[in-house]
Amino acid sequence: MDYSIIIQKAWEGYDASKTIKTIDDISAKVSTNHVYRITFDDDDIIIAKLSYFGKYEHFKEDHRLIHSLSNNLLYPFENLLAKSLLKNNRVYIYHYKHRKTDAWVVFYNPTRIMDRLPRQLDKHHIIKLGQQVGKFHRACSRVKNVLPKSSKTLRTDINSLMEQLATNEKQFGSRMQADYLKYHCEQFLKNRSKYNMNTFEIIPVFVDWNIGNFSVTPDLE
């Protein structure tokens, strides 16, 4: 399928007065998302993300939560997350549904890029990255009380997977592979209770730490 058609329709729903010149696929090819750089006739640029994995309702909830986080994070992480484009004061999310195709699109303003980490990290890179991730998690913890509530948790995700396994285990491969997944789901739920996971601090944010999707200062911050 030519996903650029969906991107075009999504933009027309946002602002048909601004004409798209080119749509370039810049996907990292490491997830189920497709990422595009959109260039307009006036040479303005935005980023589009298209997904068809999971459920539209979850995608919408996730991106409204991430947008809230991006606006509430303080220095030095205030520009770490890209800002979604808004329409009528809400994150604009386009839902495309035609025959068997069900996909959704969100637009972002581009973020400024500094240095990239090398593809293979040395020990000092790993130590510094671990420190920075820890600081970011602490920053997320400080703003968690002002974020929208999430309907998803690790437990609901595991329960959803177990329901899919019970409904159609063939989609996960052989019987042995399905049983292997079931075993680990059961182990997770068992250990969740064993270690009293409901006492853990909950930060309802998932950030994909692919090395290609963030940059660092010369001091690796």
Low-pLDDT regions: none
Query: Mind telling me the CATH class of the largest domain?
Result: Alpha Beta
- The CATH level-2 architecture of the largest domain is identified as 2-Layer Sandwich
Number of strands: 7
Feature tags:
221 residues, 2 domains, five-stranded antiparallel β-sheet, 17% strand
Could you describe the 3D structure shown?
The protein is an alpha+beta fold and 221 residues long. It has two domains: 3-115, Phosphorylase Kinase, domain 1 (2-Layer Sandwich), CATH 3.30.200; 154-199. The chain is built from five helices and seven strands; from the N terminus they run αβββαββββααα. It has helices spanning 3-15, 56-72, 123-143, 154-167, 175-194; strands at 20-25, 34-40, 45-51, 86-87, 90-91, 93-98, 101-108. The strands form two sheets. Strands 1-2-3-7-6 form a five-stranded antiparallel beta sheet, sandwiched between helices. Strands 4-5 form a two-stranded antiparallel ribbon. Helix 4 (154-167) runs antiparallel to helix 5 (175-194). The protein is globular and about 60 Å long. The N and C termini lie far apart (40 Å).
In summary, what is this structure?
By secondary structure, the chain is of the alpha+beta class.
